[in-house]
Amino acid sequence: MPRGNPSPKLAITVDPDVHEKVLEAAMTEGISVSAWLTNAARHALLARDGLAAVAEWEAEHGELTDAELAAARRRVTRQLAAGGRARSA
Predict the structure, then answer these.
(1) In whole angstroms, what is the distance from residue 87 CA to residue 69 CA?
(2) The whole model's pTM is what?
(3) Count of domains forming the chain
(4) Burial class (CB in 10 A: 0-12, 13-18, 19+), 18
């Protein structure tokens, strides 16, 4: 029986061009392909959750206006330029 909390394994198939890009990206970042794919999946899941949260908010309060979206883009751009994370308050 395995000790600790072993990670589950997945067998996946990807297009050849994606395969090469994933290998290059993992090597460039100095991490394993498994770690790179885990990070990519985590990012995609966070984005999906964020989009769902926005949709829920809009269903309750109405769609965000162009002005609100523009203000949000400016705020994120400023935070990223300052070296912060876009998620920070």
Answers:
(1) 15
(2) 0.70
(3) 1
(4) exposed
